[in-house]
């Protein structure tokens, strides 16, 4: 009878993966659609010089992050609790970037943290930007100086997070500090920043906390979501839309539109509204 044990997928390659089980790292062939973060059963292969095995079962996922295309979806990572959006002045994080990932977090039922990195750089515009998102959880740090880093470490306890941010926003530096291990990085040829070039990986901070790094998350688009999924990604607009006169209100020029009324009353931020309309129009152009 072959030995079966349970573990977590911590690295994923094109045709294989690495599973951590009983403090061992075991190279495995995978079932279809296995992703980093999956809890799996593996059947150990006997008589090999290095531990190896075959994944025989994927346990139900608490969450799944997918890249959605016109015809099918591609799973990227599972069992994530929080999407952590890096906000920096250099490189500049736009509200459109933030709103895109807030929509995705809503779609996949992930909690959100806005992580303002590089607070050692004074920039009043960042505070103005963050004020737009005051209803979301925000932590301010400087990964370079270590300022307020303990607050992030305390916050992450018991969570599994995935970072999203522009190249050069500090994802690798922050992850390295959290896990106590330097990650290999390569500088971009145009000097726009630094990015990690690796396969999808899960890094354990402790027994109950982890960081998932999946290069595919950079390429996720929202062009193939539904109008309803875009709308629910803007909670304040969604709530106002429930009071519109017409169920099919376009929130542009229909009579008695509560979204427009809330916009005029500054209950809804104008930049958030503009991004919502832009995302909806992009759907129509796909």
Automatic annotation (TrEMBL):
SUPFAM superfamilies: P-loop containing nucleoside triphosphate hydrolases (SSF52540)
A GO molecular-function descriptor: GTP binding
Organism per entry: SAR86 cluster bacterium SAR86B
InterPro entries noted in UniProt: P-loop_NTPase, Ribosome_biogen_GTPase_RsgA, RsgA_GTPase_dom
Protein name per Swiss-Prot or TrEMBL: Putative ribosome biogenesis GTPase RsgA 2
Pfam families: RsgA_GTPase (PF03193)
CDD domains (UniProt xref): YjeQ_EngC
Ranges of residues in domain EngC GTPase: 78-218
Domain of life of the source: Bacteria
């Amino acid at each position: 009878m072959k030995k079966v044990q349970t573990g977590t997928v911590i690295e994923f390659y094109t045709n294989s993966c690495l599973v951590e089980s009983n403090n061992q790292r075991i190279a495995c062939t995978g079932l279809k659609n296995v992703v980093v973060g999956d809890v799996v059963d593996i059947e150990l292969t006997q008589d090999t010089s290095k531990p190896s095995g075959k994944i025989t079962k994927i346990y139900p996922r608490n969450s799944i992050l997918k890249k959605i295309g016109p015809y099918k979806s591609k799973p990227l990572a599972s069992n994530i609790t929080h999407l952590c959006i890096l906000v920096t002045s250099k490189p500049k994080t736009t509200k459109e970037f933030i709103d895109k990932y807030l929509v995705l977090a809503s779609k996949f039922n992930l909690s959100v943290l806005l992580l303002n990195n590089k607070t050692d750089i004074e920039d009043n515009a960042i505070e103005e930007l963050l004020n737009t998102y005051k209803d979301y959880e925000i932590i301010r740090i400087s990964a370079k100086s270590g300022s307020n880093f303990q607050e992030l470490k305390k916050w992450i306890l018991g969570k599994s997070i995935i970072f999203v941010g522009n190249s050069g926003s500090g994802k690798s530096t922050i992850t390295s500090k959290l896990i106590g291990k330097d990650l290999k990085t390569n500088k971009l040829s145009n000097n726009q920043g630094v990015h990690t070039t690796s396969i999808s990986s899960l890094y354990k901070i402790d027994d109950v906390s982890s960081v998932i790094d999946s290069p595919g998350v950079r390429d996720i688009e929202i062009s193939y979501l539904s109008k309803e999924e875009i709308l629910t990604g803007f909670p304040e607009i969604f709530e106002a839309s429930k009071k519109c006169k017409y169920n099919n209100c376009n929130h542009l020029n229909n009579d008695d539109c509560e979204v427009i009324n809330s916009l005029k009353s500054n209950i809804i931020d104008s930049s958030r509204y503009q991004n919502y309309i832009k995302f909806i129009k992009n759907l129509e152009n796909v």
